[in-house]
Design a protein that fits this description.
One of its GO terms (biological process) is tetrahydrofolate biosynthetic process. Belongs to the dihydrofolate reductase family. Its EC number is 1.5.1.3. This is Dihydrofolate reductase. This protein is an alpha/beta fold and 176 residues long. It has a single domain, classed as Dihydrofolate Reductase, subunit A. It is built from four helices and ten strands. The strands form two sheets. Strands 5-4-3-6-1-7-10-9 form an eight-stranded mixed beta sheet, with helices on both faces. A two-stranded antiparallel sheet has the order 2-8. β3, α2 and β4 form a beta-alpha-beta unit. The protein is globular, with a radius of gyration of 16 Å.
C-alpha cells in the first residue's frame, strides 16, 4: 500500500517566528478555520509542548501521534512516540487503517526542523508581520528543494490580526 504523503502545516511571520511563550503570537481565525478543514480526519504529528499549548488534550476529529521524550506518560486519546521517525511510522499505520490521504505535521519548531528533510508538502500561512520577541522559529524553505505551486492572498478578516498569504509547496522530484 502506498504511504500517505507527509505535509507540514504552519503559520510563519516574515521574520520566521511561529511561536512566543508557548503560544501563537497572533490571532488568525480565518487561518484556524482552514487549518481545521485541512487536518480533520487525518492523523497529525505534534510535539508534546505544542500539545500542551492546546491544553494538553488532542484536537477533536484527528488521531494524534505525540512526540515526547517521556513515552511512559499517559495522555488520553493520543499515541506516544519517542522520535519523529517513530511518529511517522505510527501515523502511516493510522492513515492506512483509516484511509487518510495525508498526514499533517503541526509543530512545534523542533518537530518541523526534524521533518523538513523528508516531508512531501508544505502548507504555509505567511503572516504579513514581523513578530518581535518570538522564541520559536520555522526553518528557511530551500527553493532548491521545495517549489511553490500555489499562493493566495488572504486579507485580514474580522478576527485576524494580520493579512496572510496561503502558499503550498511541493518537494521537487517527489511524487505529489
Amino acid at each position: 500500500m502506498a504511504k500517505a504523503p507527509l505535509a507540514i502545516v504552519v503559520a510563519v511571520s516574515r521574520n520566521g517566528v511561529i511561536g512566543r511563550d508557548g503560544d501563537m503570537p497572533w490571532k488568525l481565525s480565518t487561518d484556524l478555520k482552514r487549518f481545521k478543514a485541512m487536518t480533520l480526519g487525518k492523523p497529525i504529528i505534534v510535539g508534546r509542548k505544542t500539545l500542551d499549548s492546546f491544553g494538553g488534550k488532542p484536537l477533536p476529529g484527528r488521531p494524534h501521534v505525540v512526540v515526547t521524550r517521556d513515552v511512559s506518560r499517559i495522555i488520553e486519546g493520543v499515541q506516544l512516540a519517542g522520535s519523529v521517525e517513530e511518529a511517522v511510522n505510527a501515523a502511516q499505520a493510522i492513515a492506512a487503517a483509516t484511509g487518510a490521504d495525508e498526514i499533517g505535521i503541526i509543530g512545534g519548531g523542533e518537530i518541523y526542523r526534524q521533518s523538513m528533510n523528508f516531508v512531501d508538502r508544505l502548507y504555509v500561512t505567511h503572516v504579513d508581520a514581523d513578530i518581535p520577541d518570538g522564541d520559536t522559529f520555522f526553518p528557511d524553505i530551500d527553493p532548491d528543494i521545495f517549489e511553490k505551486v500555489s499562493e493566495e492572498a488572504i486579507p485580514a478578516g474580522e478576527k485576524d490580526n494580520y493579512p496572510t498569504r496561503f502558499s503550498v509547496y511541493h518537494r521537487k522530484n517527489a511524487a505529489n
